[in-house]
């Protein structure tokens, strides 16, 4: 027997750290590290939840039998999530590299000119670029 | 002391290939294109044709299934039976009847599924055709592959009835799109892709946390089961977890629909992406998002309507107000469209503000949302078709300002008529009857439920939106440069332009389609 | 037959107006004269037919108008009252049309071409409208004629519209009468609501049989009285009439002396049964009439302009008529026979129409000769144009009520009615009687004064005797006949005038007073001044000339506040109501700009919104369950 | 407190701490390495919770592939090896990020604590094994599984297409992209 | 009583102008003048057909919906494309067709433009559809159809001497009214969802049965707001003066003669009969605003300097009478409202034609620039202006008078307005004096006065021919109001709760 709350709190902590990592980091690669933490938090939540008998929390009080769901949804889902995360990180890193190639930097604060409120925003960047070159 | 209980899976899933045709066809096409590229790199026409054929086959599948009229379930788990040391099954929790529980289907062909798939495929075909001369020209293989993958994800999403399929399909409909954006392979494309990527990842995190919580609360990933469990009236702690899960999932899906405040990426990405991809984002991708929200909320979580309906109401009016307010002062065509799609997203989601305890109200809301979505997608495609054409014929390219359209009606009367008509459809003012009926359809559930603040703000937003749509239309007829060269229309573009115009016109006359898209029950 | 005659009386002038405008310019005069001549013939025919065959109550004209459950029949009616007044109106109109053909000879310059055609058509239109008022069988139809008369008056007063004074006078005339006319409109409204009909005959019948609720009756009568006061230029809505003298003199003769201004009196006479149900309202009318009577006579005394003098005298004389009908409820005349009760007023209406038209037309000739309307420019008519002076004198004697001229008989009939009321013991009767007698003196004074200035005085005319065209003189003779011989009518009075009773006592007193007053005024030159008014203190002269400054009161109390309010409204329209509308533009722009500030382009910031949004809606969602 | 719990707590502390360091460390390479530690300890947690296959996949995919990718990316983008203050945004951004992280973590933790409380669960070691998982995936989760392969394929194509050198200019015949 | 046959008439009446517009839009080679003549011909046929329709309707009885044509359109919303004609709509259809002919005729000489003709025909078709629609949603769709063409008319052909002004005025017009009608849409949807039908005849028959008083009030407020913007009602009127001032003559005429009628028609057709209990609560407010508008607009006219703006403001006052008549909820008041509606359409159209002609000559509509001395300089135009002004001030014997009289009469006997009925009636009647004051002021400045030599020619034959029908209509309606009142007399009882019995 194990307290269910432990893994869940750990998941919450990791989620918070992931969010912090995504938001605080300037370097795009490090932002991705934060994202990994966030996804892992979700995974932990799923795995922890799959230790519950079928029916989840809702069935906990009512069930007389501790039936396990043989579909093992939580763990299956966790495996899917890991795969999604892998795919995601692959594409993400490719894009980060593209950004680096195009701009020579992976600092998110350095690439803001598409934002309408950013200082470098122009309505016709094409012509601006053409003039610049 | 309990005796040992064990559960045994019964049966293996059977896959109904016909039901899954709208998903499978794009995948097969994708594989064929990759194969063709491996055999003879640089093929142009064949890969175009294969891609198109894949989409059309999928559309054919949708049409067949719609005509067939039969509701199909597929990829169903056989469920499981519980055995104990004693004779007979154990007494199960009431919420987990029948004895064979855990049963569920991952994919259901229903009116909802087919309607969304139809809309998605419509948009996909148009965007593919539009892209053939643009982003599709250089990286045909990659472009077509990614587009088809997205479409497969979006069509799967429409039929998905479990959270795993939903998540995977949503991601399949998102990740390749980011690749598509990055296909521009310049700083702007990279930036646009990064912007969307980061939002997508953050949203994925929220979605997964939400799904985790939902699973924790209900112990199932099948939406029907979740709906049953929640409808049985669980304890408050369970309910709180479920609500948190539901709302977090909604937050995770929101970015796809461009719901405020998850919309921030929209204008930047649209502006940085190739125009046909922006069109793709605003139609197929958005339709996928809407269907995810519809499926999740309408089918999985109707019992939690008390929590999400008011939230969606607030978010919807916030979305349209913010989108319209910012769109008012946009000068770049694609940015204006981006903000207008934000505003339109509010309209699409608006009917859900009216969801109530009855199944009918949820169905009405879904019908409203999907009906509006159809009108929006068709009109949007027409607008984008013209915008793509203008961009191709204009020096400053994709980020051309609205001033480029000054006097367009003098040189290109047909195209500008189509643009004006489509914009009026978006605005919802006759002759764009289609848009007007769509607004009626979207407002009807809200008025029926008497959610007055939401309804009135939405109504006022009609005028707000009209301001910038008409600003654009006014430029078309303003006196301008008559000497501009005539366009050279390519067949693909011509098809899209004509098709979208015909769609706007046809749906204006036959507005029945918009209002009656979802006649049956919701499942 | 009667129907046709009545219809023709209305339609012939109307047709003349239309044809006069549509056909050749040079035919304008012919159409105008023909129209009024036709109307006169029709009116005379109508009078004879009515007198023999009796009244006709419903002559279809404009169909009917169905209002909810009520049907308004836009029909004419014809009885002796209408026929008699119609004859008078048509006669004056004919005279004026003939007179005008000559009066406007040579008018028009290169930059202001002659307006005779429009003028003649307007006068024809006016005649038609007046005929319509006289013959209207329904209050709404009467209202139509009533207001078209007002329009004609406006157009004709403003005939010389290049003159600022004429423009101002025209506007003033129309606006003040229209203010009164709200009363008529509202009366119609009240009667529709309260009595369920606007037919005059029906209303009179219902009133006589006490079928109309008291509240409705009093309200309606008070409202009608407002219209009467406005149209008949009685205090306090009288100020437009003197100003209206800016119009051409024939117009003054027709509209502002003989016909339109007496329409109010006609209305009261016409609807007397209804008025009798509200004696209080009639008393108010009598008070207003008495005030107008004396006040206007006083003002006339000091006028320095011949036409204004005549205008004030018109106010004063119309007040006689109004007073006569307003004392009706206080008279004890059998069972309240409305015809008899109205007779003194109607009689004075008729005789006044004749002598006042004569006076104005004669004055027009004088003005024609002198080239000015100022009394100071006149004099010596007796020596240069003796016949004209005589005709002018006939008119003045009629005005003063010197026997045996027409004015004497009708005025004495009015005083007789007042005396009757006074004998019945009501204060109204006494008031009218006193005012009437006092006014006789004043009238005599200013009539005499006018003649003494115009006919005697120093000759100011050019040495070459000015020849008057025959067309201008002939109408004078035509009008002089009834002015002199009105009394003859009383020997064989038509039915409408049957109720006339001339009390010998008042008659003799009145005649003596009138003669003395005239004589006193005529004697003035021998006392060293041609103008008896100069005998008054200078201060009094100014006040009287100014007609007690009532114009200024109106300007301060009404005109200025209205324009001040209009300015306020205009400012509020722009700065308050529209400000909200205009503010939406900047507001949305600013809101859009503020919202745009979040679009920093920083991808992590966008992600932050996702998290913040997620947290906020999660909290909200959990709060909702 | 059972042995499992003690083990869990140890792993949790390790995972939490390494996670914290992964998102705060000023050295990029350290970040990546702390991430390895964190993910590894999570794999341990999965084991404790009886999810053997998940733990295995975690080690294989994450520690084996993802982190290597990340490290490669760091190297390719010439990330500084020395401690660098430029890794983080300005202080205000950090503050906001902290607040957001706290909010997300707090709301999750709060909800879960409220709902789950002291619930204890029986960890069954047999369930997370390869056979049950395989059976489950191929009976109930066939469709998402297959769809996932499409996703992976698409991601592969996308990654390759994106990281290719830009096509030479002469192919830009239309003047569009 | 009710015959069949001629069911093709109304669909043709609606579709003919729209089809004509489409054809003219699609054929760019036509010369502008030829296009205007074609437009005139189409308008003429429309007018003849509407006369036929009016005759048939009269023959079968104005009291009921005649010539009904029905076909399913959007059955999911219960929307039927159904048209019908009765005593309320017939005069409006005739007016619309007449103005279509006259504006197109006007366009053959002045400011000819093919696309302007397209807009005119579209507005005509949309307006006729609005007036004949028997389905709430169809009514709304048709109601909105006129917006965009009108927006084009103002924005494209507006008086563009000041940069950006036409666009501003057009945008203000379209946004203001669109906001209003969006709010109205809410009310319409509410009615439809609560009653389960959108059939106007059916709804009128029910007369609010099955709708709670609260629902009715909410729906009435929403619908009245939308219609009041269009009418326009004080204080929602500020879009009108700029729109009129900027719009070309054609636009002003259509705006005054057709568009403003849509709002009041909606009140009579939808708000009053379908939501009687709701209107009972709204009526006092409506009446109050109406009366305020009468006085307010009148006072504003007293100091207004621009003639077109003045005519526009006077429209606000006129429509105030219409609204007062509607608010009275009495047969008399409704009849008055309908009469005033038509009368205002005719008279304002005439005035805008005249003002447009003056503006063409003087290139300004400022009173100081136009005047003085028109009666001598341009006698025909001058007299037409005078006629219009005199009609505008509500002279009895001309069309406007009847509407005002009946509206005031309705207000006086109204029980729906409560204690305020008589004060409202008196204030409204006083408003006619203000009307007289400002019109006489106009005449004093423009028509009278000493002319300055050498300015502009008088009205051409073409212009006179264009305006004459309106003059004749004004006189005809004023002198013989019977037919028009008869057309509405029966039908208004059906529109009012309890047959409009006045206690």
From TrEMBL, chain A:
Its EC number is 7.1.1.-. Keywords: Cell membrane, Membrane, NAD, Oxidoreductase, Quinone, Translocase, Transmembrane, Transmembrane helix, Transport. One of its GO terms (cellular component) is plasma membrane. It comes from the Bacteria. It catalyses: a quinone + NADH + 5 H(+)(in) = a quinol + NAD(+) + 4 H(+)(out). The chain crosses the membrane at residues 6-25, 37-58, 78-100. One of its GO terms (molecular function) is NADH dehydrogenase (quinone) (non-electrogenic) activity. It is found in: Cell membrane; Membrane. GO terms for biological process: ATP synthesis coupled electron transport. It is an enzyme of class 7 (translocase). It is a multi-pass membrane protein. Belongs to the complex I subunit 4L family. NDH-1 shuttles electrons from NADH, via FMN and iron-sulfur (Fe-S) centers, to quinones in the respiratory chain. The immediate electron acceptor for the enzyme in this species is believed to be a menaquinone. Couples the redox reaction to proton translocation (for every two electrons transferred, four hydrogen ions are translocated across the cytoplasmic membrane), and thus conserves the redox energy in a proton gradient. NDH-1 is composed of 14 different subunits. Subunits NuoA, H, J, K, L, M, N constitute the membrane sector of the complex. This is NADH-quinone oxidoreductase subunit K. The gene is nuoK.
From TrEMBL, chain B:
Its main location: membrane. It is found in: Cell membrane; Endomembrane system; Membrane. Keywords: Cell membrane, Membrane, NAD, Quinone, Translocase, Transmembrane, Transmembrane helix, Transport. The chain crosses the membrane at residues 17-37, 49-67, 112-132, 144-160, 166-183, 195-218, 238-265, 277-301, 307-327, 336-357, 369-391, 412-431, 451-474, 495-522. It is an enzyme of class 7 (translocase). One of its GO terms (biological process) is ATP synthesis coupled electron transport. One of its GO terms (molecular function) is NADH dehydrogenase (quinone) (non-electrogenic) activity. Residues 160-460 form the NADH:quinone oxidoreductase/Mrp antiporter transmembrane domain. Pfam families: Proton_antipo_M. InterPro entries: NADH-Q_OxRdtase_suN/2, ND/Mrp_TM. One of its GO terms (cellular component) is plasma membrane. It is a multi-pass membrane protein. Its EC number is 7.1.1.-. The keyword Endoplasmic reticulum does not apply. It catalyses: a quinone + NADH + 5 H(+)(in) = a quinol + NAD(+) + 4 H(+)(out). NDH-1 shuttles electrons from NADH, via FMN and iron-sulfur (Fe-S) centers, to quinones in the respiratory chain. The immediate electron acceptor for the enzyme in this species is believed to be a menaquinone. Couples the redox reaction to proton translocation (for every two electrons transferred, four hydrogen ions are translocated across the cytoplasmic membrane), and thus conserves the redox energy in a proton gradient. Belongs to the complex I subunit 2 family. NDH-1 is composed of 14 different subunits. Subunits NuoA, H, J, K, L, M, N constitute the membrane sector of the complex. This is NADH-quinone oxidoreductase subunit N. The lineage of its organism: Bacteria, Bacillati, Actinomycetota, Actinomycetes, Kineosporiales.
From TrEMBL, chain D:
This is NADH-quinone oxidoreductase subunit J. Belongs to the complex I subunit 6 family. Keywords: Cell membrane, Membrane, NAD, Quinone, Transmembrane, Transmembrane helix. It is found in: Cell membrane. InterPro entries: NADH_UbQ/plastoQ_OxRdtase_su6 (IPR001457), Nuo/plastoQ_OxRdtase_6_NuoJ (IPR042106). The chain crosses the membrane at residues 6-24, 31-49, 55-74, 95-116, 136-162. Its EC number is 7.1.1.-. GO terms for molecular function: NADH dehydrogenase (ubiquinone) activity; quinone binding. It is a multi-pass membrane protein. It catalyses: a quinone + NADH + 5 H(+)(in) = a quinol + NAD(+) + 4 H(+)(out). GO terms for cellular component: plasma membrane. NDH-1 shuttles electrons from NADH, via FMN and iron-sulfur (Fe-S) centers, to quinones in the respiratory chain. Couples the redox reaction to proton translocation (for every two electrons transferred, four hydrogen ions are translocated across the cytoplasmic membrane), and thus conserves the redox energy in a proton gradient. Pfam families: Oxidored_q3. Its main location: membrane. Gene3D superfamilies: NADH-ubiquinone/plastoquinone oxidoreductase chain 6, subunit NuoJ (1.20.120.1200).
From TrEMBL, chain E:
GO terms for molecular function: NADH dehydrogenase (ubiquinone) activity; NADH dehydrogenase activity; ubiquinone binding. One of its GO terms (cellular component) is endomembrane system. The keyword Transcription regulation does not apply. It is found in: Endomembrane system; Membrane. It comes from the Bacteria. Pfam families: Proton_antipo_M. The chain crosses the membrane at residues 6-27, 34-58, 88-108, 115-131, 137-157, 169-193, 213-231, 243-262, 282-303, 310-330, 336-358, 381-403, 423-440, 470-496. Its EC number is 1.6.5.-. Residues 133-417 form the NADH:quinone oxidoreductase/Mrp antiporter transmembrane domain. InterPro entries: NADH_Q_OxRdtase_chainM/4, NADH_UbQ_OxRdtase, ND/Mrp_TM. GO terms for biological process: ATP synthesis coupled electron transport; electron transport coupled proton transport. It is a multi-pass membrane protein. Keywords: Membrane, Oxidoreductase, Transmembrane, Transmembrane helix. Belongs to the complex I subunit 4 family. This is NADH-quinone oxidoreductase subunit M.
């Amino acid at each position: 027997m194990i307290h269910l709350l432990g893994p869940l709190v750990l998941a919450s902590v990791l989620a918070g750290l992931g969010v912090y990592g995504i938001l605080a980091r300037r370097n795009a690669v490090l932002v991705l590290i934060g994202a990994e933490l966030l996804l892992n938090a979700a995974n932990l939540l799923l795995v922890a939840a799959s230790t519950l008998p079928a029916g989840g929390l809702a069935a906990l009080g009512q069930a007389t039998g501790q039936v396990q769901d043989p579909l093992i949804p939580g763990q299956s889902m966790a495996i899917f999530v890991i795969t999604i995360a892998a795919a995601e990180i692959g594409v993400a890193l490719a894009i980060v590299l593209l950004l680096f190639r195009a701009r020579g930097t992976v600092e998110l604060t350095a690439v803001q000119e598409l934002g309408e409120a950013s200082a470098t925003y122009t309505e016709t960047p094409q012509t601006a670029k053409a003039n610049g070159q | 002391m309990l005796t040992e209980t064990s559960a045994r899976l019964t049966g293996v899933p059977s896959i109904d290939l016909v039901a899954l045709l709208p998903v499978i066809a794009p995948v097969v096409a994708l594989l064929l294109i990759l194969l063709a590229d491996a055999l003879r790199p640089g093929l142009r026409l064949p890969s175009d044709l294969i891609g198109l054929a894949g989409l059309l086959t999928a559309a054919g599948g949708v049409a067949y299934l719609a005509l067939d009229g039969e509701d199909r379930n597929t990829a169903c788990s056989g469920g499981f039976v519980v055995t104990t040391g004693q004779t007979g099954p154990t007494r199960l929790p009431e919420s987990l009847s029948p004895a064979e529980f855990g049963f569920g289907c991952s994919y259901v062909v229903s009116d909802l599924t087919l309607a969304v798939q139809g809309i998605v495929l419509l948009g996909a075909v148009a965007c593919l055709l539009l892209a053939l001369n643009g982003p599709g020209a250089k990286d045909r293989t990659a472009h077509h592959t990614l587009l088809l993958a997205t479409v497969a994800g979006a069509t799967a999403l429409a039929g998905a009835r479990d959270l795993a399929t939903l998540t995977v399909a949503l991601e399949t409909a998102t990740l390749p799109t980011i690749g598509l954006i990055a296909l521009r392979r310049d700083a702007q494309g990279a930036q646009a892709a990064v912007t969307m990527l980061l939002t997508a990842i953050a949203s994925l995190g929220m979605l997964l946390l939400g799904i985790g919580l939902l699973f924790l609360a209900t112990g199932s990933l099948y939406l029907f089961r979740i709906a049953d469990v929640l409808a049985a009236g669980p304890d408050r702690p369970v309910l709180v977890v479920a609500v948190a899960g539901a709302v977090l999932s909604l937050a995770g899906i929101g970015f796809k629909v461009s719901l405020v405040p998850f919309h921030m990426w929209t204008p930047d990405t649209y502006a940085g992406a190739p125009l046909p991809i922006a069109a793709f984002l605003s139609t197929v991708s958005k339709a996928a998002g809407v269907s995810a929200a519809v499926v999740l909320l309408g089918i999985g979580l109707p019992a939690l309507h008390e929590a999400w309906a008011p939230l969606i109401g607030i978010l919807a009016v916030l979305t349209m107000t913010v989108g319209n307010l910012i769109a008012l002062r946009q000068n770049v065509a694609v940015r204006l469209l981006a903000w207008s799609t934000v505003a339109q997203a509010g309209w699409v989601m608006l009917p859900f503000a009216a969801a109530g305890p009855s199944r009918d109200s949820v169905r009405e809301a879904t019908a409203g949302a999907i009906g509006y979505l159809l009108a929006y997608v068709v009109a949007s495609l027409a607008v984008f078709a013209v915008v793509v054409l203008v961009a191709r014929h204009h020096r400053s390219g994709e980020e051309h300002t609205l001033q480029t359209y000054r006097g367009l009606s003098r040189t290109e009367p047909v195209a500008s008529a189509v643009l004006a008509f489509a914009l009026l459809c978006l605005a919802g003012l006759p002759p764009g009857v289609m848009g007007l009926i769509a607004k009626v359809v979207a407002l009807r559930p809200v008025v029926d439920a008497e959610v007055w603040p939401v309804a009135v703000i939405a109504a006022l937003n009609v005028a707000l939106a009209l301001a910038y749509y008409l600003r654009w239309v006014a430029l078309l007829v303003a006196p301008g440069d008559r000497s501009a060269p005539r366009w050279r229309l390519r067949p693909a573009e011509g098809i899209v332009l004509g098709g979208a115009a015909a769609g706007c016109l046809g749906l204006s006359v036959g507005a029945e389609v918009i209002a009656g898209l979802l006649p049956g029950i919701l499942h | 037959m009667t129907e046709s005659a009545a219809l023709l009386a209305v339609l012939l002038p109307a047709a003349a107006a239309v044809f006069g405008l549509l056909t050749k310019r040079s035919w304008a005069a012919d159409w105008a004269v023909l129209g009024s001549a036709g109307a006169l013939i029709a009116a005379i025919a109508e009078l004879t037919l009515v007198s023999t065959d009796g009244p006709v109550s419903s002559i279809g004209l404009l169909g009917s108008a169905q209002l909810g459950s009520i049907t308004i029949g836009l029909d004419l009616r014809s009885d002796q009252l209408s026929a008699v007044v119609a004859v008078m109106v048509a006669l004056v109109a004919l005279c004026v049309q003939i007179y005008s053909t000559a009066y406007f000879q040579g008018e028009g310059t290169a930059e202001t071409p002659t307006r005779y055609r429009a003028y003649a058509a307007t006068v024809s239109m006016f005649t038609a409208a007046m005929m319509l008022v006289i013959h209207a069988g329904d209050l709404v139809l009467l209202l139509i004629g009533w207001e078209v008369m007002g329009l004609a008056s406006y157009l004709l007063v403003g005939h010389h519209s290049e003159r600022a004074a004429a423009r101002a006078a025209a506007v003033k005339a129309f606006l003040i009468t229209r203010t009164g006319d709200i009363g008529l409109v509202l009366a119609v409204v009240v009667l529709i609501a309260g009595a369920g009909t606007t037919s005059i005959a029906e209303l009179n019948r219902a009133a006589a049989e006490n079928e109309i609720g008291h509240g409705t009756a009093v309200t309606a009568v008070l409202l009608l009285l407002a219209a009467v006061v406005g149209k008949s230029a009685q205090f306090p809505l009288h100020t437009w009439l003197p100003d209206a003298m800016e119009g051409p003199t024939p117009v003054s003769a027709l509209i502002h002396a003989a016909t339109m201004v007496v329409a109010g009196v006609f209305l009261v006479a016409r609807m007397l049964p209804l008025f009798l149900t509200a004696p209080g309202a009639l008393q108010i009318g009598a008070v207003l009439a008495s005030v107008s009577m004396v006040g206007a006579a006083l003002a006339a005394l000091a006028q320095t302009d011949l036409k204004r003098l005549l205008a004030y005298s018109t106010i004063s004389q119309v007040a006689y008529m109004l007073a006569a009908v307003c004392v009706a409820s206080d008279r004890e005349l059998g069972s309240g026979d409305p015809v008899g009760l109205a007779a003194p007023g109607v009689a004075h209406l008729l005789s006044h129409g004749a002598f006042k038209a004569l006076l104005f037309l004669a004055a027009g000739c004088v003005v024609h000769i002198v080239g000015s309307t100022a009394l100071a420019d006149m004099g010596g008519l007796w020596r240069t144009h003796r016949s004209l002076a005589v005709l002018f004198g006939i008119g003045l004697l009629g005005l003063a009520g010197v026997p045996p001229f027409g004015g004497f008989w009708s005025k004495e009939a009015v005083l007789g009615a007042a005396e009757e009321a006074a004998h019945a013991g009501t204060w109204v009767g006494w008031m009218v009687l006193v005012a009437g007698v006092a006014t006789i003196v004043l009238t005599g004074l200013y009539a005499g004064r006018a003649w003494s200035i115009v006919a005697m005085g120093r000759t100011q005319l050019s040495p070459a005797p000015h020849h008057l065209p025959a067309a201008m003189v002939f109408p004078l003779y035509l009008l002089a006949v009834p002015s002199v011989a009105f009394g003859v009518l009383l020997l064989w009075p038509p039915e409408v005038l049957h109720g006339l009773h001339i009390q010998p006592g008042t008659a003799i007193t009145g005649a003596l007073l009138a003669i003395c007053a005239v004589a006193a005024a005529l004697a003035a030159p021998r006392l060293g001044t041609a103008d008896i008014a100069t005998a008054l203190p200078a201060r009094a002269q100014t006040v009287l000339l100014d007609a007690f400054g009532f114009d200024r009161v109106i300007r301060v109390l009404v005109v200025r506040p209205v324009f001040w309010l209009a300015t306020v409204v205009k400012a509020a329209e722009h700065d308050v109501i529209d400000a909200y509308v205009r503010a939406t533009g900047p507001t949305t722009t600013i809101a859009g700009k503020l919202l745009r500030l979040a679009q920093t382009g920083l991808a992590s910031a966008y992600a932050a919104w996702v998290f913040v949004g997620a947290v906020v809606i999660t909290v909200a969602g959990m709060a909702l369950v | 407190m059972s042995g499992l719990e003690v083990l869990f707590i140890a792993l949790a502390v390790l995972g939490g701490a390494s996670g914290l360091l992964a998102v705060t460390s000023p050295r990029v390479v350290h970040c990546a390495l702390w991430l390895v530690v964190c993910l590894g300890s999570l794999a341990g947690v999965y084991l404790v919770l009886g999810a053997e296959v998940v733990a295995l996949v975690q080690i294989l995919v994450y520690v084996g592939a993802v982190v290597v990718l990340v490290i490669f990316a760091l190297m390719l983008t010439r990330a500084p090896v020395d401690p660098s203050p430029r890794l983080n945004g300005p202080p205000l951004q950090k503050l906001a990020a902290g607040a957001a992280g706290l909010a997300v973590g707090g709301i999750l933790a709060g909800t879960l604590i409220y709902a789950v409380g002291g619930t204890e669960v029986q960890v069954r070691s047999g369930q997370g094994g390869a056979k049950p998982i395989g059976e489950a995936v191929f009976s109930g989760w066939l469709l998402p599984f297959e769809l996932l392969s499409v996703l992976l394929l698409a991601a592969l194509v996308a990654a390759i297409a994106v990281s290719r050198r830009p096509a030479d200019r002469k192919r830009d015949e239309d003047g569009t992209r | 009583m009710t015959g069949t046959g001629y069911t093709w008439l109304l669909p043709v009446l609606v579709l003919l102008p729209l089809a004509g517009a489409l054809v003219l839009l699609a054929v760019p080679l036509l010369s502008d003048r030829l296009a205007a003549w074609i437009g005139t011909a189409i308008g003429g046929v429309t007018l003849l057909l509407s006369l036929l329709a009016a005759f048939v309707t009269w023959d079968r009885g104005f009291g009921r919906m005649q010539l009904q044509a029905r076909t399913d359109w959007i059955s999911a919303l219960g929307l039927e494309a159904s048209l019908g004609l009765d005593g309320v709509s017939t005069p409006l259809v005739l007016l619309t067709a007449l103005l279509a002919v006259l504006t197109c005729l006007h366009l053959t000489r002045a400011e000819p433009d093919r696309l302007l003709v397209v807009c005119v025909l579209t507005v005509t078709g949309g307006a006729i559809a609005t007036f004949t629609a028997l389905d709430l949603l169809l009514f709304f769709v048709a109601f909105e159809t006129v917006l965009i063409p009108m927006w084009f008319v103002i924005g494209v052909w507006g008086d563009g001497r000041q940069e950006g002004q036409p666009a501003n005025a057009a945008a203000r017009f379209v946004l203001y009214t669109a906001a209003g009608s969006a709010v109205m849409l809410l009310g319409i949807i509410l009615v439809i969802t609560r009653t389960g039908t959108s059939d106007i005849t059916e709804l009128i028959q029910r007369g609010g049965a099955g709708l709670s008083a609260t629902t009715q009030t909410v729906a009435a407020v929403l619908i009245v707001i939308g219609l009041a913007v269009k009418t326009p009602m004080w204080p929602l009127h500020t879009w009108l003066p700029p729109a009129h001032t900027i719009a070309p003559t054609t636009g002003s005429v259509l705006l005054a003669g057709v568009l403003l009628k849509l709002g009041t028609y909606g009140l009579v057709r939808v708000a009053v009969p379908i939501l009687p209990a709701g209107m009972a609560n709204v009526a006092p407010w409506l009446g109050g605003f109406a009366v305020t508008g009468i006085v307010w607009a009148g006072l504003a006219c007293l100091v207004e300097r621009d003639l077109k703006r003045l005519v526009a403001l006077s429209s606000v006052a006129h429509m105030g009478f219409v609204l007062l008549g509607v608010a009275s909820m009495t047969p008399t008041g409704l009849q008055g409202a309908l009469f005033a509606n038509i009368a205002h359409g005719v008279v304002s159209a005439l005035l805008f034609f005249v003002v447009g002609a003056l503006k063409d000559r003087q290139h300004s509509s400022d009173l100081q620039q136009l005047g003085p001395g028109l009666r001598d300089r341009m006698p025909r135009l001058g007299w037409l202006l005078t006629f219009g002004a005199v009609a505008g001030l509500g002279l009895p014997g001309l069309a406007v008078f009847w509407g005002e009289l009946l509206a005031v009469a309705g207000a006086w006997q109204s029980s729906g307005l409560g204690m305020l009925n008589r004060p409202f009636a008196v204030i409204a009647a006083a408003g006619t004096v203000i009307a007289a004051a400002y019109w006489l002021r106009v005449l004093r400045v423009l028509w009278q006065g000493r002319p300055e030599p050498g300015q502009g020619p008088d009205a051409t034959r073409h212009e006179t021919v264009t305006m004459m029908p309106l003059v004749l209509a004004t006189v005809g309606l004023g002198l013989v109001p019977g037919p028009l009142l008869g057309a509405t007399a029966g039908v208004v009882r059906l529109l009012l709760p309890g047959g409009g019995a006045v206690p």
